[in-house]
Amino acid sequence: RPRVLSGIQPTADSFHLGNYLGAVRNWVSMQDTHDAFYCVVDLHAITMGHDPVALRNRTRLSVAQLLALGLDPDRCTLFVQSHVPEHAQLGWVLSCITGFGEAGRMVQFKDKSAKAGQDSTSVGLFTYPILQAADILLYQADQVPVGEDQRQHLELTRDLAQRFNTRFGQTFTVPSAYIVKDTAKITDLQDPTSKMSKSASSPNGIIELLDDPARSAKKIKSAVTDTGREILYDEENKPGISNLLTIYAALTNRAIDELLEMYDGRGYGDLKKDLAEVLVEFVKPIQERTRAYLDDPAQLDKILAIGAEKARAVSAVTLAAAYQNVGFVSPA
Ligand code: AQP
What we know:
By secondary structure, the protein is mainly α. The protein is built from twelve helices and five strands. The strands form two sheets. The protein has a three-stranded parallel beta sheet with strand order 1-2-3. A two-stranded parallel sheet has the order 4-5. Helix 7 (151-168) links the parallel strand 4 (143-145) and strand 5. The protein starts with a strand and ends in a 6-residue tail after the last helix. The model has no long low-confidence stretch (mean pLDDT 96). Adenosine-5'-tetraphosphate (AQP) is lined by residues 8-9, 11, 16, 18-19, 22-23, 146-147, 149-150, 184-186, 195-200. Adenosine-5'-tetraphosphate binds next to helix 1.
């Protein structure tokens, strides 16, 4: 079975629809076809300044949401990044083969540091994609299921794997990004050419899975749509309605063409009203299951302890090989 690895940051009180449709939904289906490793990347979550109490809560909340969305610890390895020290250890080694200019070309870093200003930008934010490369390479992952926004980071990971292998001998599998085109970029409901994002979307532009369903329904109904009245899938000229069609199709497992047939001759209002209902029915059981997992912290801790042990069994082997190949003396 091919191996997959992916991660999600515990940086908000809820995942948003982009996180689910762009990434986690694929994680769930890949459990049956791949040897799957998924982690809540708390080391990444401290790169932008954070509150320790919120981080701890959000880490548990993230794990509970992943389980509620369909990750099954019997069919995948689910763990928290900081429980596996090899991530930070390999991150250091990889940072020593990454060019300063190379890291500086990462678009996400440029955007986030420009927004934060130089004095509020941490070195950790700069080296974040290198740690992400370590996350992936430690597990010898073949594929990494992510949204479109992660493509450049995946390219860096591939470059680092190849560079390390060339300089120090075959050590890492060179992974590829697994990006499902249809749902690779869910956009902001109020600004449908930008991605739906925790840090950049306005409150009405983002659908949070754990938000009050009635409020999410309202946001769908007040989503920005386009000029004209016809329901068409046209990302360029009708980005708003195309985004709603993408969300609708993904949540109901229908093809966009089928939706276009269903709404032939009908207006935007009908589509929004129906999608709002679909969304409410989708989030309600997820919210219930998330609550149930949170109500049993001992079970969550147990799942995470087993996950960390399974993750370390793989990551320790890779780190030992990397240390050996790079020239470190093994401890007696
Ligand atoms: N809008 C999106 N459409 C499709 N996929 C998306 N992802 C994020 N936004 C979208 C994918 O979700 C996974 C987890 O990403 P993350 O933990 O790095 O979250 P994030 O990128 O911090 O989420 P945001 O909202 O995009 O945060 P900011 O505002 O910080 O940039 C990844 O696979 C990502 O591709």
